[in-house]
Amino acid sequence: MDSPDRADFLAGLKPGGKYEGVVGLYRHNVSTDRIGLFDKEIIDALAAAGVKWIAHNGAGYDQIDVLYCKEKDIWVSNTPGAVDDATATTGFYLMISALRCFSRAERTLRAGGWKSTHKPGEAHDLTGRTLAVLGLGGIGLRLAELAHAFPMRIVYHNRRPNPDAPAWCEYFGADRLDEMLAQADVLSVHVPLKDSTVGMVDETMIRKLKRGAVIVNTARGKVIDEPAMIRALEDGHLGAVGLDVFPDEPQVNPRLLDFPNATLLPHMGTETCDSQKKMEIRALSNLRDFLTKGKGFDIIPEFK
Amino acid sequence: MPPRIVLCDPIVYEDEGKAVLEGVAEVLQLDPSVDRDEFIRALRPGGRLEGVVGLYERNQSTGRIGHFDRDLISRLPRSVKWIAHVGVGYDKVDVAACKEHGIGVSNAPGALDETTATTALFLLISALRGFSAAEQSLRAGNWKNPHSAANAHDLTGRTLAILGLGGIGLRLAELVHAFPMRVLYHNRRKVANAPEWCEYYDKEHLDDMLAQSDVLSVHVPFTEETRNIVDERMIRKLKKGAVIINTARGQVVDEEAIMQALKDGHLSAVGLDVFHNEPNIDPRWYRFPNAVLLPHVGGSTAEAVRTMELCALQNLRDFVLTGKGRDLVAELR
Q1: From the list A114, A127, A148, which residue is nearest B114 (CB)?
Q2: Residue A266 contacts B, CB cutoff 8 Å
Q3: For residue B60, is pLDDT > 90?
Q4: CATH class given for the domain over B113-293
Q5: ipTM for the assembly
Q6: A28 in contact with B at a CB cutoff of 8 Å?
Q7: For the domain bounded by A83-264, which CATH number is listed?
């Protein structure tokens, strides 16, 4: 696909266009810069051209209107599993940085202040502290494994208990969510972004955390109510945050840069050559299986 | 009259700390403004601190008496028989001079295993993933330019070589084993209680270990034997693109050689918590985009400070009651 913009892409899908006859697509979020999100307009054009499969590269597929794809009989696969290690490692890094105040320490050093802003009393070891995982899927579970090496105590909330979770992952259902939040030193967010999860980590949830708690987000920026999080940083209810994702990337709310104890990364969750290779192979394998067997392996849950 | 102890630095965990010496010794606090000469005068007969038998001191002392070097130690009155160092690394205390003057020195072994190993892990992840430059880029308003995933790596399946498998090195090994990384180590002697997945390489096979390592993490104490142990030769034996992590002491690595290796790409990144001449570190470090730098905060957590303080005070307590602290440093045994 070499289209520099949406108009060219749509034109290419029409009869006689350069993409005529296409039955399957490999897609990565970077294409959004040129052709925009996979909304109804694009999906209509794909359906008209005869596309039957979209093999998305990535675990999160919020940039595709998948329910509309379903209506138009276009199947969608993603790349679960392939992202787990790199993303969990990112969450792990953000958690360590937040608890140890390392981001601020490095910035102060680089600004010529050595360790003048570092107060040992504000920095903590991880062993014995409690990590709450919101959404124990592949990534959440991988993070739990890494944190368990200290060990941290692992608690989690999921719509249903995860049958693959080891015994040391303590489940808290919806009725006990508040109980879980009250015990968490760190809340790490691992839910996909969909209509039901927008702003899920809201004022109420944030205030149920103990004072001084840390929030880590490697999922999607919109899952957290950003103004509520900022208020909690301002009044010290949250001790620190570690964020890899933001509601309106690549824009970052400048207010976040003011907080000394914020560790901020520009959506680096899967940015390693090892993981990118794994993800590409996974997506292309789904496309290959669609072509050879009629169906890719990683069909997204909305289609099951 | 109870024996007298001087706190050359304040205790952070005061209540718990003072309780250790309650009823056992009289605890005196050194004024932070007192300089070395005044300190020595105060310790002498007639001085405010006369007859003191033990001292409590920290490496990064806020006071003006300076480090416990040969000059200071040789001027201490004969009454002083114990120095309880609040820290693990005691390279700034001249233990040879202490030995000559019959002064015992204790440190806090094991107190920083957790804290320092976590720091090394943080530096390792940051260096392999390019996170430091990425955050700087974001904060400068450039989002993730000019990061390239091609230069960033997962930890899983990569090889970590530990130089010095003591408490901290072993703890780091446990943490990376969770990924897992493959763990190799070099020590003067094989470590008896190391897990079987920690592969030992002796001096004869050191080059072999280096050639297989994606990351070398340094965990040796600083002594004259280990000065510049990570030198040009060792660095060049590492595979191209390797990463060096140092949470030990700046003096055990050749900074010039490391910088050169970063410049020519032999090293792909470094993660450093310690430097020559802290806090006035070589400003050239700031210009390496692939250097992760921390200002010697590797052992700085609330929990670690408390553990080290209580350990030092316990050693002073044991010294007062039995003549000897439990954690007498190796050189004085």
Answers
A1: A127
A2: yes
A3: no
A4: alpha beta
A5: 0.94
A6: no
A7: 3.40.50.720
Write the single-letter amino acid at A60.
G
- The pLDDT score that the predictor gives to residue B47 is 96
Q: Where in chain B do CATH 3.40.50.720 domains reside?
A: 4-111+302-332, 113-293
Class of domain A6-81+272-303: alpha beta
Judged against a pLDDT cut of 90, whether residue B178 lies above it is answered with yes
CA dihedral B32, B37, B43, B46 (to 10 degrees): -110
User: Where along chain A do its domains lie?
Assistant: 6-81+272-303, 83-264
pLDDT mean over A71-76 = 98
Mean pLDDT over B115-135 rounds to: 97
Non-local (6+) Cβ contacts of B268 within 8 A are B127, B151, B241, B242, B243, B290
CATH of domain B4-111+302-332: 3.40.50.720
Clarify whether A20 is annotated catalytic.
no
Q: Is the pLDDT of residue B177 over 90?
A: yes
Residue B61 banded pLDDT, cuts 50, 70, 90:
low
Tokens of B291: 């250097």
**Scanning the structure block, which residue is given the tokens 């899952």?**
A223
Range list of β-strands (E), A17-128: 24-28, 53-57, 75-77
Cβ pair B218, B247 in contact under 8 A: yes
Q: Is pLDDT above 70 for B260?
A: yes
- Which residues of chain A neighbour B294 with C-beta distances below 8 Å? 102, 105-106, 109
The answer to whether the A6-81+272-303 and A83-264 domains have the same CATH topology is: yes
